[in-house]
């Protein structure tokens, strides 16, 4: 233990580095996304701009295709790669991959595809940890990788407590003093650094304060848990199953890779609301009620667009999209209850937020992190702990009953079976 205490300063330095790295990463995504959204706004009724918008997407696709072809460690969200590094299964050239992953990810995510920043943030953090571990060979490498991966999650969502729990539950997959101290030190240092330099504000701003759902109305949340659990099972089958579908398509790799860019681009020309990971769709209840038909369409559209991108292995994550899809599902459920006169209109937004936790829990199978994440993402404005706990537990139980594998565990097993040859030992 004395050795650990003497090494904690390294994890403070690592946290500062990760805070800077992921902060810059988020800014880069924002710049590309702003450009693409502005360009998209000029395509309405203009065939030339519409063509150029698709052309820009194809160009981004070609650039990122050759990055991923050159460095297979940049594929997908990156979290399974970090799990493999932690287990000693993969040896990754972290100095090369951290650059390639940064470029491929901010271009792909910023382009408007339905992928999120959190998976790449976790991988970038873990790669940074691996680099720093090289400066001190006397301390176990996995603690640098795992703690920095958790810190990447923290800065991506500005959710340090959820990140520490996610690190323990999903990255380290065990709990001991070393795991906690290294993760907490790195995560706190990264969050403070990012907050001081890039701004300290929750992922979801201007969330109104809601009254807690009364215990007499918890049957609403219980049913929501079943609904989000079933959606989580469907989500895993479609999104992960898309990988198998892509492999069977007899087309050149570049053509298959560009398909998500072109199809997403065409979808955005029809409905710009589908742009990006979907965070803006979480706010739909605040902007006035959408019809059930519109919400159902958005739910399936975002799952299919994510399946297109994620199934092909584009450099981007799934956590933000799965939270947004969960919110849309909660919106569908709450709108139906409102139409039946069972809840007031202002309750729709609250139920949408609760549904996010259920969806996260069913898919990733980290229920405690799901509860805390929603509280932190909303800056504490939403603190319905009992509702969040109930929906997370029920959704988790439903996913277990249907034997749906946890999302990243499934991806990791597939990586070990089918793509291990990409990594040098």
From TrEMBL:
The keyword Transcription regulation does not apply. Pfam families: Voltage_CLC. It is a multi-pass membrane protein. The keyword Nuclease does not apply. Keywords: Chloride, Ion transport, Membrane, Transmembrane, Transmembrane helix, Transport. InterPro entries: Cl-channel_core, ClC. The lineage of its organism: Bacteria, Bacillati, Bacillota, Tissierellia, Tissierellales. It comes from Anaerococcus kampingae. The chain crosses the membrane at residues 7-29, 49-68, 143-168, 180-198, 218-242, 254-271, 292-313, 319-338, 350-375, 381-399. It is found in: Membrane. This is Chloride channel protein. PANTHER family: CHLORIDE CHANNEL PROTEIN.
């Amino acid at each position: 233990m004395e050795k650990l205490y003497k090494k904690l300063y390294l994890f403070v330095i690592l946290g500062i580095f990760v805070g800077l790295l992921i902060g810059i990463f988020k800014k880069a995504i924002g710049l590309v996304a702003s450009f693409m959204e502005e360009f998209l706004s000029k395509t309405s009724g203009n065939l030339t701009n519409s063509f150029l918008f698709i052309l820009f997407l194809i160009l981004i696709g070609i650039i990122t295709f050759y990055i991923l072809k050159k460095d297979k460690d940049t594929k997908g969200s990156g979290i399974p790669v970090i799990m493999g590094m932690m287990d000693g299964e993969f040896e990754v050239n972290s100095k090369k991959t951290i650059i390639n992953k940064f470029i491929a990810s901010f271009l792909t995510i910023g382009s408007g595809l339905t992928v999120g920043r959190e998976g790449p943030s976790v991988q970038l953090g873990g790669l940074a940890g691996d680099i720093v571990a090289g400066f001190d060979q006397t301390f176990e490498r996995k603690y640098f990788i795992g703690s920095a991966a958790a810190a990447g999650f923290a800065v991506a969502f500005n959710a340090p407590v959820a990140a520490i729990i996610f690190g323990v539950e999903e990255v380290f997959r065990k709990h001991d003093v070393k795991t906690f101290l290294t993760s907490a030190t790195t995560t706190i240092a990264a969050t403070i650094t990012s907050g001081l330099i890039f701004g300290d504000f929750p992922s979801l701003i201007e969330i109104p304060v809601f009254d807690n759902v009364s215990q007499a109305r918890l049957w609403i949340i219980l049913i929501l848990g079943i609904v989000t659990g079933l959606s989580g099972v469907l989500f895993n089958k479609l999104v992960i199953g898309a990988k198998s579908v892509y492999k069977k398509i007899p087309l050149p790799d570049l053509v298959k890779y560009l398909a998500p860019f072109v199809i997403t681009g065409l979808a955005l020309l029809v409905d710009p609301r589908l742009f990006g990971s979907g965070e803006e769709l979480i706010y739909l209840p605040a902007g006035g009620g959408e019809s059930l038909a519109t919400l159902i369409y958005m739910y399936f559209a975002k799952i299919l667009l994510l399946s297109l991108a994620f199934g092909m292995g584009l450099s981007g994550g799934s956590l933000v999209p799965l939270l947004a899809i969960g919110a849309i599902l909660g919106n569908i459920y709450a709108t139906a209850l409102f139409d039946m006169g069972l809840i007031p209109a202002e309750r729709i937004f609250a139920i949408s937020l609760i549904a996010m936790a259920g969806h996260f829990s069913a898919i990733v199978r980290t229920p405690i992190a799901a509860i805390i994440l929603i509280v932190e993402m909303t800056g504490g404005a939403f603190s319905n702990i009992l509702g969040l706990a109930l929906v997370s537990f029920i959704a988790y139980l439903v996913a277990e009953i249907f034997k749906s594998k946890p999302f990243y565990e499934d991806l990791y097993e597939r990586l070990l079976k089918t793509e291990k040859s990409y990594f040098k030992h």
